[in-house]
Please model this.
Amino acid sequence: MPAALPAIVPHNFRPLDCAVVALYGLVVLGIGFFYSGRQKSSAEYFTASGKVRPFMAGISLCATLLSTISYISIPGEMVQNGPVFACIYAAAVPFTYLIAGWLLIPAIMKLRVTSAYELLEARLGLPVRLLGSIIFILTRLLWMALILYTSSRIIVDVMGWPPARGFTVAACIGLVTMLYTLFGGISAVVLNDVIQFFILFIGAVITLACITHSLGGVSAWWPDHWLRHWAAEPFFSRDIHVRLTMVGTFLNTVIWWVCTSGSDQIAIQRYLTTRDTRTARQAFLMNNIADVSATILLSLVGLALIAFFTAHPDAMRAGATFAHNGDSYFPVYISHYLPLGVTGLVMAGLIAASMSSTSSGINAVIAVFSKDIIETFRHGARETEKSKINSAHVQALAIGVIIVGGSRLMAAVPGNLMEVGFKTANLFLCPIFGLFFLAMFVRFATPFGAWFGALYSFAAAVLIAYWDLITGQPRLSFQLIAPVALVVSLGISCLFSLLPTRGRPRPVLTAYSLAAFVPIVAVYLYVWK
Model:
């Protein structure tokens, strides 16, 4: 029989837990200041001059993309909807390694660049490079704002604080992350990412161990049947309102990883910190292994949470159910039932997940903005390495302010944490990958085709993500966003590239552009509620 639980209190975050979190904060700041004196050039600041080992680069990439959203949403998805997502996700990752590792990474590593978007200019011209850069910057600013919002909401919940304190928490996380990223560059970001990955991994292991001990063994939480509240998740469905299918999960996993690894500055920057194609591929493999391991572990935490709160039905807040509040159970367990000191460690894991994502985002945005925007519009004016680094420091400060402010807007997006992620930053995922696909593999691609492929893809992604708000009809499956946006991106780009637009005078291009806008406007006017 499980041991009796103490009565629920607002939180059990005690001085020792505070000390653990404070120590973690001092360590990450200390690493940033340690590397601050070693940043002698922009190459060192942004790519560590290609000296990072594959293990470090791979774990850093995994920690960056395994955000607080993942840390809470993966157990929450297991609690609320069952194991289909985690199982299919893990099965799909090897396919992403084959595609990205053997097709995309070799093409990328041929170019020793600071910004991935320099490739776009070489094939499609400066305007397309700027388009790719701006899309990336917007994507990562949205993503970082979402990370800060999610982290602050969870931490406030764990601590038992009023929701109004969420903005203060977001500001504190943003400030600390901005400081160590500002001073330490990519070297500090990578090392902190590795430390943060193991903190969040250990936190999940300890959580699983504590639940196992309290229930009397693994058999007490390992299910032997499909739980009643888990929704049916078919292999495939023609119903566009079905939230998850196995085929949809597989496609979304492959598309997400291929698009991210082939067009996201955060991923490409990690490859460029390594020595060559072979070590970059090893880094990506290490990322895949770490990602699958973390997904499986966090899914097991979700199973254990179901058993724990089933055995102790009074332990959860009134009104919460497995079927509707899956994301709430892990934070409640952290705040009430972990041992003294362990709560602080897991809290540090939550903060670590937020910081690793935010720091990498800040560094990548600075790299892109410096190389693609500032250098482009300075028209070749010479700039010393010291001034480049000083400029990066100013940009880091500005980005910190923007994302903290943007975190206040994320509460307006409907859905659980997983859906919110797909409906915000991931709207840009396929449009930007389409630009890289054209540049690398479509010889007849034109700037006109690239621009309108990205525009149509984004319009399609927004229409699906916010179908219920735009049309007043039932919500569509969020798993449709990526496949539809990718098909639209590649199809429209190639189709419009066949138009005779190269070298045409401005009036002709204007006429083509106005005609190309008509279908988008017509569709939105037709479906608008």
Observations:
- The first helix runs from residue 15 to 36.
- Confidence is low (pLDDT under 50) at residues 5-11.
- The two ends are 55 Å apart (CA to CA).
